[in-house]
Amino acid sequence: MSFSINRTGGVRPGLSAVVLVLSVALTGCGGGTDSAGGARSSAVGTAAPAATSGTTQARPSRPSADTGTSGSADSARLPGLGPRTLAAIPAKARQVVLVTGRGRNSPISEVALYRRTDTGWAPGAEWPAHNALRGWTDDHHAGDLRSPIGVFALTDAGGLLADPGSKLPYDRSGGFTTVGTGFEGEPLAGSFDYVVAINYNREPGTSPLDWTRPLGAGRGGGIWLHVDHGGPTHGCVSLAQRHMKELLLTLDPAQHPVVVMGDATSLTR
């Protein structure tokens, strides 16, 4: 499959939207293996073995070596996070999407928004969510049906629907069409109406549809925040459509937003 980058950085299907739709449906949340090129940076956090120089993968079990850490006084106000998880949050991050899984093997989670103020982290909206069918892992691989644990930047968005007013770069494309049914027989149509790419094994500054995998295809990819279809995901985190729209209106690249995600026990490290 071939792709082209549009003038605003979005990816347009080169052969057929139908081919891309089938690829997305078969590989989960946009998790393909082809490379389309893009920016030259990666996920926020601790370096992990990578296929491309400069690529990093955040993990709560180890502090960030190159991004700086949050001050202990205000980061302590992020509930349920242990010292190693807190240390992985970059000092420049002023918006946090905290995804707390109900259990290591559970597909149920809760999302809470926080913004950094002069006096600490101020809580915002809280929403129910789904994560991967088999829960969570700090060593994610393609097809394991677990969501990756870690701290990851949020830099790019897109969807099948028109941009609702996102401050993040937004790629509207028919490539976000998806079909079929989920693990519980629920229809998947509309799942990618709104999407925020999670910078796990992807190139920031590109459309969520970009299939570049700096850590290699075997480490998975296409991990998104997207519209909930009423059941577990392949690896993504899903929210009700109205909540995804609110998230898109809230996230501001000038505030360097990150997602902190994992099961509750792992996040206490």
Keyphrases for this structure?
5 helices; 24% strand; 269 residues; globular; disordered N terminus; five-stranded mixed sheet; alpha/beta
Query: How many whole angstroms does the radius of gyration measure?
Result: 17 Å
Q: What's the end-to-end separation, in Å? A: 42 Å
Structural class: alpha/beta
Could you tell me the strand content as a percent range?
Answer: 15-25%
Provide the domain count: 1
Number of helices: 5
Domain L,D-TPase catalytic: 188-260
Biased composition (Low complexity): 36-58
Pfam families: YkuD
Biased composition (Polar residues): 64-73
Please describe the topology of this protein.
Elements: E1 3-5, E2 11-13, H1 17-27, H2 72-75, H3 83-87, E3 95-101, E4 108-117, E5 120-130, E6 136-137, E7 147-148, E8 150-153, E9 157-159, E10 170-172, E11 195-197, E12 224-227, E13 237-239, H4 241-250, E14 258-263, H5 264-267
Parallel strand pairs: 3-14, 6-7, 9-10, 12-13
Antiparallel strand pairs: 1-2, 3-4, 4-5, 8-14, 9-11, 11-12
Region (Disordered): 32-82
Biased composition (Low complexity): 36-58
Biased composition (Polar residues): 64-73
